[in-house]
Design goal:
Elements lengths: L1 H5 L1 E11 L4 H11 L3 E10 L4 E11 L4 H14 L3 E6 L4 E7 L4 H11 L5 E8 L5 H6 L4 E3 L7 H14 L4 E4 L8 H6 L4 E5 L11 H8 L3 E8 L9 E8 L6 H24 L3 E4 L2 E4 L2
Parallel strand pairs: 5-6, 5-8, 6-7, 8-9
Antiparallel strand pairs: 1-3, 1-4, 2-3, 9-10, 10-11, 12-13
Helix pairs in contact: 4-9, 8-9
The chain binds ligand LMY7XDAE.
């Protein structure tokens, strides 16, 4: 026993199910039987939906494999009608980043990743423009140029999917990628695509939110990271940030102020997703920070 105890692996269990007594008891009892030690636990009882959400990070003997634990957990999962998933903690998530012609979010993610601040493994950069070819090269990352027109969108999206699969990616980040993904692609990658929208949603949807903000004369601007769905700028919100602005600021100034907020909001959303801290709750999210 002691020998096995020394080498451990950390796993994460995320689950949701109809709320009722006994869920935490069943989960913690199962983990105790697995000789596991809980090192972090969070839960939400959502009265509005009657659903229960939980994230547990635990240490267990090093030869434990997530799928084996998942199999052994099946009886508990079935008893409580859970949607449950086991993941390896602290494993960098294979990620593909998409960008168009505005690069501050891409640049920020690359530097945070290089600095060990993001638990992801960037596998490739994909763009419908060539602008950031050299930036990708400076980080020794593959760069794929896939031009998109209304005529070639299906082929272009198939090329993206081929790269995503070939790289073994699990997350697609739209870091100011300015093409609308098709319904089919959104369904194929549901829950795996995070976009940064440069406004405080639900205000100012679309391609030019800073101009809209200027025209409306708002005193706060912001950014929103959300999961991508077929409905433009409507996906479940993960994180938001705001900055105060005033009457003297033109659209260019608002755009400049917004950049930093976009960077911070997107980086937080990517980090939390890669740490399995986000659970979908209908068209909303539960984020166990
Ligand atoms: N299916 C989805 N695809 C994308 C989403 C999304 O929410 N669902 N978000 C966008 C990013 N985005 C805002 O954050 C956005 C991008 C593009 C447009 C837009 O109107 N694009 C025009 C073309 C603009 C251009 O070429 O510069 C268009 O597609 O006709 C609006 C919002 C990423 N994809």
């Amino acid at each position: 026993m002691t020998q096995r105890r020394n080498q451990t692996v950390k796993l994460i269990l995320t689950l949701s199910c109809p709320d009722r007594p006994g869920i935490v008891h069943a989960v913690s009892g199962f983990l105790f039987a697995e000789e596991a030690n809980i090192v972090e636990a969070s839960q939400l009882n959502d009265a509005s939906t009657g659903l229960f959400f939980m994230r547990v990070k635990f240490e267990c003997p090093s030869d434990t494999r997530p799928r084996d634990v998942e199999e052994r957990f099946a009886s508990v999962s079935n008893d409580f009608a859970m949607q449950a998933k086991f993941s390896i903690a602290d494993r960098p998530m294979p990620t593909v980043i998409m960008v168009s012609q505005i690069g501050h979010c891409l640049n920020d993610l690359l530097f945070r990743h290089r600095s060990g601040l993001l638990p992801i493994d960037i596998r490739a950069i994909v763009s419908n423009h060539r602008d950031f070819y050299q930036l990708a090269a400076s980080y020794d990352l593959p760069f794929h140029y896939i031009p998109v027109t209304s005529a070639n969108k299906p082929e272009a999206e198939q090329k993206l999917l081929d790269i995503f699969q070939a790289e073994g990616a699990e997350l697609l980040v739209l870091a100011r990628y300015m093409q609308v993904l098709s319904n089919g692609l959104c369904q194929r990658l549901s829950g795996q695509v995070i976009n940064i929208h440069h406004s405080f949603l639900p205000s100012f949807k679309g391609a030019r939110p800073y101009q809209q903000a200027f025209d409306r004369g708002v005193k706060l601007i912001g950014a929103t990271a959300h999961y991508v769905t077929a409905d433009l700028d409507e996906g479940p919100i993960i994180e938001q940030g705001v900055e105060r602005v005033d009457h003297a600021m033109d659209p260019a100034t608002l755009t400049a102020i917004g950049r930093d907020t976009e960077n911070v909001v997107l980086a937080r959303a990517v980090k939390w997703h890669a740490e399995h801290r986000i659970l979908l709750n209908g068209y909303k999210t539960v984020v166990f920070q």
